[in-house]
Amino acid sequence: MAPRVTAATTEPSSEGQSTPPIHRRINPELVPGLMVLVCAIVLIAASKLMNPGAGFTQELAAVLGTSIFLVVASFGQGLTILLGGIDLSIGVVIGIAAMMISVLTDGRDATLPWAVPVTLAVGAAIGVVNGVGIALAKVPPFIMTLASGITFYGAGLGFTSGLAQEPVAPALERLMNGHWFGVPIPIFLIIAFVIAATVFQNGTSVGRKLYAIGSSPGAARVLGLPIGGLTVLAYTLSGLCAAIAGLFLAGYSSAATLDMGGPLLLPTIAAVVIGGASVMGGRGIYLGTFAGALFLSALETIITVLSLSQGLRDIIEGAIIVGALLAQGERWNWFRR
Amino acid sequence: MKKRGFKRLLQRLIFGAASLGAAAAMALSVPAEAAPYKVFLDLSYSGNVWQTEAANGIKALAETPPYDKEVTFKTVISGTDVQHQISDLQSMIAAGANAILFYPVSGTGLNRVIEQGCRRHVLMVAYDSSVTAPCAYNVNSLGGRYGANSAQWMVNQMGGKGELVINHGVAGTALTNLMDRQALDVFHKYPGIRIVAQFYGNWNDALSQEGISRILAAHPNIDAIWTVDGTWGSFQAVMQHRPSRLVVIAGQSNNGYRLAIGDPALQEKGLKGLSASFGPADGPYAFKVMMEILTGELKPTEHNIAYPLPWVPYDKVKLCTGLSFVNGCNVFPPGKVPPLFIDTALNGELLPELNLTAVENGTPVPGATIQKLPPVQYSDNLPGVNCEECKAPSDWLQPNRVTPIPAPK
Lengths: 337, 409
Description:
The complex is a heterodimer. By secondary structure, chain A is an all-alpha fold. Chain A has one domain (about 30-45, about 55-330): ABC transporter involved in vitamin B12 uptake, BtuC, CATH 1.10.3470. Chain A is built from 14 helices and two strands, in the order H-H-H-H-H-H-H-E-E-H-H-H-H-H-H-H. Chain A has helices at about 20-25, 30-50, 55-80, 90-105, 110-135, 140-160, 170-175, 185-205, 205-215, 215-225, 225-255, 265-275, 285-305, 310-330, and strands spanning about 180, 185. Chain A has a two-stranded antiparallel sheet. In chain A, helix 2 packs antiparallel against helix 3, helix 4 (about 90-105) runs antiparallel to helix 5 (about 110-135) and helix 9 crosses helix 10. Chain A is globular. Chain B has helices spanning about 1-30, 50-60, 65-70, 80-95, 110-120, 145-160, 175-185, 205-220, 230-240, 255-260, 265-270, 280-295, 355-360, and strands at about 35-45, 70-75, 100, 125, 135-140, 160-170, 195-200, 225, 250, 270-275, 305, 310-315, 375-380. In chain B, helix 2 runs parallel beside helix 12 (about 280-295), helix 4 runs parallel beside helix 5 and helix 8 packs parallel to helix 9. In chain B, strand 3, helix 5 (about 110-120) and strand 4 form a beta-alpha-beta unit. Chain B has 13 helices and 13 strands. At the A-B interface, helix 3, helix 11, helix 13 and helix 14 of A face strand 7, helix 8 and helix 9 of B.
């Protein structure tokens, strides 16, 4: 499952040798994600211990259910970071998508079959603009995506005054707030998304090429990889994922505002970094990012339930991101020894 | 070589600054043959529902007779940066403003430019948020003591006991600190009220919904939620996770929320809601106050003027059939406005000139004329919030609208 094209992840075959210790049998790319996942579970369990009245499954459902926006949006962020870039327009695209789906559906389910593709296409189109600016015009990613985010936000504000005047389609609300077999529907959506995202990133040739470009753009150029096209693709997928997150958020909230995606931007970056991806590009798997998103959601839950002050909450979240970056310096070497 | 380069850079900078200054002056200049009063509206951030509705209401009033003939009106958006607002206010003063209605982004940071304006006889009026400069007028609902009154209303509805969640606003803002202090002072008087969780929902519905969802998983038996905003999101979370047993809740005035608290079917499931909080109609009201001071009709004796706190408990919700709040109605039917539309953008008594179309589009109501305001009420003085060297009333933390119940034994 893990990428095999990067130098960092390629390991000598152990065939014909004695069985290595268990920690050497675990793929090093999985280690940060696994550790973060363990931390998330510990957090949920700790939360349960502090509130014996609460059910573990309810806690788990709350953590998972509220993580779906981050799980989806951070996949796109992860792809851009994999290339050594970043997408700072994600929050804006989420808001625009949420507004669009409200405006286009106007509370009618019958409009969904065309409103959803149009909304997703607009999100992807913003990604294309970002990708073209970065790949062809060579604008640094953070400037390109920041500028496009501000511009598209301005356009959205001009059209809407910041509030969708139309209600969200009821089917979308039911999707985000309903249950199948007693399990919240968003949990099924998360499972499907994680499988699709992992297969794309680590199981397809396109995914492997993204790793190759991220780890060594020079070598990728020599190999003749279509760097420009793949860069545009990564940013397009990022826009698409942000638009999906926007659809989900509009359904969840039953109403859309243009600024509703703003609070999700930094957590998407944090989830990728905590999950073990290198901010320099070329390293990191989606399962790590997924674990990072779950961890952040669990952390948010425990901070909320503990009623920590906003200052302390910010300190904890900042410290965790710095801690994850410092841990990256170690590159989880213990597992390679 | 280096020196010449520096000189050229300096020349360009000076040229650039001069061009910008000229452009700003041109942008702010108003036609010479225009009406007697030059009035400016300086908005802060313009991208949320509250600010948009307030600005639209003000614009609609400025075009309603006789103001349409009396004022030349210009709107400027300063954003959330103090420096930017200072610069914009300076430009307005330089452009010969008679009056400036502004949404202050800082309580104290604008004082110097406000005093500059007052020295040049510009009437400076702040709405919703307040400034401490003594010469400015503040028009807002601080005197309505939302924190204390809404908390007391909830305590009364809860019978003085139960599990409570507090959804704070934005950490570090003067309004959040003030409202929290008033509300906590009331809640702490009742030992039976247990605050089981608190979080900062940032006055944001999506964040509030997530926060309450997380809390409900850990505290499934909560009885009440106190908010200032983010009320609709908080309520949605309860509807999603515990639809058969609802809560006592206080907060904003979104149309969807008002419809819900007025719904007898939801009331039967335990929903007891209060819709209050600062309304966008404060902006147009402040505009009328400003115009009456400017024309000499109103001579206030104090500088902190009260806009009455909108107050609609669940048993006072009344559906409107038309576009205006008349005959005591205070909510629009579903589908007429989005759920997040803030109903307190309208006020049938103090602002009969406005209707739904006016606050949605910023256009005047056909046939409407400006009605004179009833005598103004004055607000609490709060040192550091709306005045500098002043004294707060001794009971500023106490509810002044709701009568407290005795703490149950």
